[in-house]
UniProtKB/TrEMBL annotation:
Positions of the Major facilitator superfamily (MFS) profile domain: 17-458
Family: Belongs to the major facilitator superfamily. Sugar transporter (TC 2.A.1.1) family.
SUPFAM superfamilies, per database record: MFS general substrate transporter
Gene source species: Nonomuraea ferruginea
Pfam families named in the record: Sugar_tr (PF00083)
NCBIfam families according to UniProt: SP (TIGR00879)
Regions crossing the membrane: 12-30, 50-72, 84-102, 108-129, 149-168, 180-200, 261-286, 302-323, 330-350, 370-393, 405-428, 434-454
Localization per Swiss-Prot or TrEMBL: Cell membrane
Protein name in the entry: Sugar porter family MFS transporter
Mode of membrane association: Multi-pass membrane protein
Keywords, comma-separated and alphabetical: Membrane, Transmembrane, Transmembrane helix, Transport
Lineage top rank: taxon: Bacteria
Taxon lineage: Bacteria, Bacillati, Actinomycetota, Actinomycetes, Streptosporangiales
Nucleus found in the keyword field: no
Length: 466
């Protein structure tokens, strides 16, 4: 009983460490959705059209790609936790800048800085969690990244709804010296401060400590997260052997015969790209505008967006319960089938849209079907690709290239996210049903990709990956 109690306490401590690291994912989700509520206010305030709006919304993703690419190298040079602290500071500063823009273009600049910080955090959390989590719980603990993302989306949408309601249902109305949409963007500084405070308390990754020659601290950290009942000397020797055999990691280690990169790196890149090419972030970046286009007013559309986030959270919890039981690959394949059906239904529903006096409306029953199918898509994404991609990226790469490869894969994900986000306003204006049909094709292709190329990682030690 004493051993069980000690084990439970240790597991509880590891859960806290993983949850604290995943707050970077919360920032990812929060920033992804906060701009959803601010889009209309930005358009009205700066008098810009859909093209400029798409650029400002999506430009943060280019910064995220750069942050993810750079974050891998920083994580190997500064350490995982110190890099998290840098990301938190950058996000805090950029949140204040976004709240007080002079022009739409300096708003874009601050969104690039915010994106850079989020990109760093997006690759640091899965790498760190995978390196501190016991193999038996690594899938569920790795799922914390996606849970934090969806919680960030939900909290952001709830905050947006509250601010808009206080402002009389219009995000362009003033609350004190600033408009409501500015308060929405500035509120991002609060979770950034929380992330910084938590990152200051996190222990460094054992694998990074061994890479940097700090063996005494490795023993302390392994005792903290794995307990004294395991053979610490054997664990340290095991990690040391892998690190010494593989040498100091770098981007050059990613080079291989397959178009200049190792095959496993291309698999990670493609996995990341498919997660975005199905169009999930269209729901969270533009859902307010989308639902207004089918006859729902601004305040109610914010509330419907929040309901989508609740469904996202439910799906994520389902994935967390299943990822270490049925495995990563089956969940991905189930999700691909569900997303394909839901997206095809959404595309069909939007094909009935009517344009009268410049206003887009959906007749019954297509309006209700579009709402249900879009949320069904969110559910299947959340219980599969939303969670499993981050788990796999944290554990599928060999030890020697994990941080660098994860950085490249995360950068690819942000670039794919940018491509989808910047193209959606113009594509939707051209042909909304065909746009969703394109996302449907991507969901179908994702099933084929998983069936052919993804290997199961359930229950394997990180030292066995390769």
């Amino acid at each position: 009983m004493i051993f069980n109690r000690a084990g439970q306490e240790r597991l509880g401590h590891v859960v806290f460490i993983a949850a604290a690291a995943a707050v970077g994912g919360f920032l990812f989700g929060y920033d992804s959705a906060v701009v959803n509520g601010a889009v209309v206010g930005i358009q009205n305030h700066f008098r810009v059209g859909p093209v400029e709006t798409g650029v400002v919304v999506a430009i943060a993703l280019l910064g995220s790609a750069a942050g993810a690419w750079t974050g891998g190298r920083l994580a190997d040079q500064l350490g995982r936790t110190r890099s998290m602290q840098v990301a938190a500071l950058l996000f805090m500063i950029s949140s204040i800048g976004q709240m007080l823009p002079f022009t739409v273009w300096d708003l874009g600049f601050w969104r690039v800085i915010a994106g850079f910080a989020i990109g760093m955090a997006s690759m640091l959390a899965p790498a760190y969690i995978a390196e501190v989590a016991p193999p038996a719980y690594r899938g569920r603990l790795g799922s914390f990244q996606q849970l934090a993302i969806v919680l960030g989306i939900a909290v952001s949408q709830l905050v947006n709804y509250v601010i808009a309601s206080i402002a009389g249902g219009n995000v362009s109305n003033h609350l004190g010296p600033l408009q409501a949409w500015q308060w929405m963007l500035g509120a991002c500084a609060i979770p950034a401060l929380l992330y910084l405070l938590l990152a200051l308390k996190l222990p460094e990754s054992p694998r990074y400590l061994i890479m940097s020659g700090r063996t005494r601290q490795v023993r302390e950290v392994l005792t903290e997260i794995e307990g004294e009942d395991v053979d610490l000397d054997e664990r340290i020797a095991e990690i040391q052997h892998v690190v010494r055999a593989e040498g100091v990691p770098g981007m050059k280690d990613l080079r291989g015969p397959a178009l200049g990169l190792l095959p496993i790196v291309w698999i990670g890149i493609t996995l990341s790209a498919f997660q975005q090419f199905v169009g999930i972030n269209v729901i969270f970046y533009y859902s307010t505008v989308l639902w207004q286009s089918v006859g729902i007013n601004q305040s109610e559309s914010l509330l419907i967006s929040f309901s989508s986030s609740i469904i996202n959270i439910i799906g994520t919890l389902i994935a967390m319960a299943l990822v270490d039981k049925i495995g990563r690959k089956p969940l991905l394949m189930i999700g691909s089938v569900g997303m394909t059906i839901a997206l095809a239904t959404t595309a069909w529903a939007f094909s009935a849209a009517r344009v009268t006096g410049g206003r887009v409306t959906l007749p019954d029953p297509q309006g209700l079907i579009a709402l249900v199918s879009a949320n069904t898509f969110v559910l299947f994404f959340a219980l599969s690709w939303g969670v499993v991609v981050w788990v796999l990226l944290g554990e599928m790469f060999p030890n020697r290239i994990r941080a660098a490869a994860l950085g490249v894969a995360a950068a690819a994900q942000w670039l794919a996210n940018w491509l989808i986000s910047v193209s959606f306003p113009a594509l939707a204006e051209w042909n909304l049903p065909l746009t969703y049909a394109g996302y449907t094709v991507m969901a179908l292709l994702s099933f084929i990709f998983v069936a052919r190329w993804i290997r199961e990682t359930k229950g394997r030690k990180l030292e066995e990956m390769g």
